[in-house]
Amino acid sequence: MQVTSRHFKEGAHAALHDKDIQKAFSKVKGGFPVARAKAASELPEFEDLRDAGRDLKNHILENLDYYLEYFEDQVLLQGGRVHWCSNYAEARDVILQICRDADARTVTKGKSMITEEMALNDFLEKNGIEPIETDLGEYIIQLAHEYPSHIIAPALHKTKDQVTELFHEKHGKYGFTERLTDPQALVNEARSILRDKYVAADVGITGANFLIAETGSTVIVTNEGNGDLTQSLPKTHIAVSSIEKVVPTLEDASLFLRLLARSATGQEMSVYTTFSTGPKRREDIDGPASFHVVIVDGGRSDLVGSDKQDLLRCLKCGACMNHCPVYQAVGGHTYGWVYPGPIGAALNPQMVGLEETRHLPNASTFCGRCEEVCPVRIPLPKIMRLWREQAFETEVTPKPERWGIGLWAYFARRPALYRIVTRIGARTLKTIAGKKGRIVKLPLMGGWSSVRDFPAPQGATFMDQWKKQNRGRK
Amino acid sequence: MPARDKILGRIRHNLKRGPLGEEAANALKARLEGHSRGIVPNRTELPHKAQVDLFVAKASALAATVARIATLDEVPEALRDYLTAHNLSTKIKMAPDKRLDALPFDKTPMLEITRGSAEPSDEVSLTPAFAGIAETGTLCMASGPETPSTLNFLPENHVAVIKASQITGTLEDSWDRLRAEYGVGNLPRTINFISGPSRTADIEQTLIMGAHGPRRLHILIVDDEKKS
Amino acid sequence: MSATAKPKNVALFVTCLVDLNRPSVGFAAVKLLEAAGCTIVVPKAQTCCGQPAYNSGDKKSAKAIATQVIRAFRGFDYVVAPSGSCAGMIRHHYPELFKDDATMMVEVGELASRTYELVSFLHDICGYRPENVRLETTLTYHDSCSSLREMKVKDQPRALLGSVDGLEIREAEDREACCGFGGTFCLKYSEISESMVDTKITNLLASGAETLAAGDLGCLMNIAGRLKRRGEKMKVLHVAEVLAGMGDTAGLGEGEN
Ligand code: SF4
């Protein structure tokens, strides 16, 4: 997928002035976070589960090679196939080849972030295969030629009116000509169109929330049921997963399932949690005849053992963005690559380069709400800070900013000199402010003054007054 | 170098070690085979009767409907009553399951029963569940020749039959039952955990029922434990 | 070292913003700490905790400034700051900064463990409650992110404010949301910051309170500055000023009469 993170500030400006985006994303606050808080409060074990989830993921990452190989063995035993891919290009090629072997003309797709990362749809289309997204949100943005603005609610940025127009424009060819405004009617129309697509598809591609080493199963979690129709109706099922999704046992998966839906939508369980193991059995009367697991590295192995390994714990629940005030203000597309919000700010620099994405880890107040709700306790602010440090060290941080900090630090490290500068500073600012007690236009601080007045200093600094009171005993 | 070796090699390199030694590998193998449970919510630590009630309450809260019947033989009539009460089609695609086959459908001549996996034209399905999970009101469906999984998804209305004795406390309990039935390390092709009917909130975060899967989920619980 | 009756020997970490912008907060802190039975020292060699450098990725400068703080604050029972953000920096981030430096770590860990945010220190460690303090006002308390999430300060200020006569607390909606200050964030991403502070202000005003208090001057300057820009009347004070009976001090951004 094309990366536009470089233009974060311009994107933020546009998003902040876009009424629809503002309406859509300001609504997030009252939805997911409220539901999550309720679900968390209704499970007394929730906080302990989060600790256990963090520890279990760490254990898995320490033994990732072992569990992946074990998983592979089980898939093979069950009659499935495993394809290892170092990067996106390899994965796209492998998937294309499987589709070609199946003589596929159309493929249905369940929601999958890793296939977003590798821009699989464009690739398949270029190669003459029609991919059809089946998650309603994904379907909407595919029709609109856009990309997800949220990892579990991809069409969050779309208003109902936009969906009305989109369906009206695109569904005529199926004989649907009415302009629908009722959300239920819109869902029904998409439902009926996609029904035929599921049945006609030659290949179904899904992601995987988990890979179970013990049984060689792939697991998907949905509310709509689209993923299940995708993976059970076509003759071929391809599950695409990144390497960190493996978990040892069914019991271990249960632990994460208790965290995932609660953190994501506030549900105790999503409506459909499905474990797929191998192709259909000989006597089965439905299910795919062939089952492929495509395991993609895509930069993850670089994180293993690094100071940012914690990122690999991510369950892709979306809680961090749901609770992020920056995300709520600027929406998902502003982040400029697949993952928006705090997880994007922490992960995207790794995936697509710090130079391109340097704004992302900087555009945070470190308010800490993301870490507070992350089911596996990923220290997102800390990782953003590591990127800031790396940007500073490698001079990705712009010069004026570096100099500004350097100059400030020069004084901060010299208390005597600092006293003089602050003494003059406080007096000067107070004088500029005069009787009003505030400064409308602060010299050299356009970023402050464009938004706020500057409350003027009271006069003499604390340290000077303290000294004058002769209380400086040390 | 094949991608597999590259990926595993990189992981090991970054973990500053080679492939796990025998001892470490054995410890992990023992962990895999131990199936030890993590933290399990204690809300299901109840007598079985209360677990069934919890299942009913949880499933109902998920917008499934539940009816409790005394014997399996009452399924046809309960099914008929449900379908007529909701003005639904009486053409039923039934899982080709032996126990369902034995049901007295002669008592409900208005029900038109066909057997097999689901087709897009099917409006109502009738399937047996493998287990029920009281913790969350979730059905556990296991696929097989007699229980095609498409029946759980394609028809608009899904009616599932479960015996009270099949209702367990937690997810972990259902794993134990699956292992007992299918053997350790084996699962049927598809295990569906179903918690209520299909839904979406993808248009302006408004909850709409019946996205792709069934619009309605009706659960018939056979109280097979009453007599004891 | 042990006698509980002995006054607590407290070093005040003034914070750079209080020093420069609002010394009255520092004096309020001194007044409160003394009332709570502490003896106060203000180490001279302090400037700032180093957060601006730390959050900008300039680890080297942050470490140098931190080292200066560590030296200046040796030998006290407690280090107290009228800011959750600066106290959080010393308590939680200094150990992070020096985690690879075993020799420094001993002292850093020890400093971290005796560093407190003012209000929680008064409440939790000193068991202090304001007496005969009066302020006729309706007040809403803003939880600064670092006070709330790093220093776990939430109920303590509300408990102490509850002992102020004439003061009625009006909680705002979404009170745990960030105000959009974020240090240099508010300069670098001013438009996003504006949107965040406006959301915050909408909720603060909707509470119907006349006065806003918080425990961090950064947030207060941001919110007060924006309130003034929008022509709103809400008076903005540091919570220490309210608790110390200095509630009649001119609010942030207001001229002295
Ligand atoms: S970082 Fe945490 S909160 Fe964010 S998506 Fe991943 S698991 Fe969820």
Using brief descriptors, characterize the structure shown:
heterotrimer; A: 474 residues; alpha/beta; Rossmann fold; six-stranded parallel β-sheet; four-stranded mixed β-sheet; 12 strands; 11% strand; B: 228 residues; elongated; binds iron/sulfur cluster
Please explain how this structure is put together.
The complex is a heterotrimer of chains A (474), B (228) and C (257). Chain A has 474 residues and is α/β, with parallel strands linked by helices. Chain A is 51% helix and 11% strand. Among the domains of chain A are: 31-158 and 202-301, Rossmann fold (3-Layer(aba) Sandwich); 400-470, no CATH class. Chain A contains 25 helices and 12 strands. In chain A, helix 4 (46-62) crosses helix 13. Chain A is globular. With 228 residues, chain B is of the alpha/beta class. Helix content of chain B is 29%, strand content 22%. Chain B has helices at residues 3-14, 22-34, 48-61, 75-85, 98-101, 171-182, and strands spanning 65-69, 91-94, 112-115, 124-128, 131-133, 138-142, 157-163, 167-168, 190-194, 199-200, 208-209, 216-222. In chain B, helix 5 (98-101) links the parallel strand 2 and strand 3 (112-115). Helix content of chain C is 49%, strand content 15%. In chain C, helix 12 links the parallel strand 7 (211-214) and strand 8. The chains are: A alpha/beta (474), B alpha/beta (228), C alpha/beta (257). Chains A and B meet through helix 4, helix 5, helix 9, helix 11 and helix 12 of A and helix 1, helix 2, helix 6, strand 9 and strand 10 of B. Strand 9 (272-277) of chain A pairs antiparallel with strand 9 of chain B, so a sheet runs across the interface. The site of iron/sulfur cluster has 13 residues of chain A, from helix 15. Iron/sulfur cluster is lined by residues 263, 314-320, 343, 374-376, 378 of chain A.
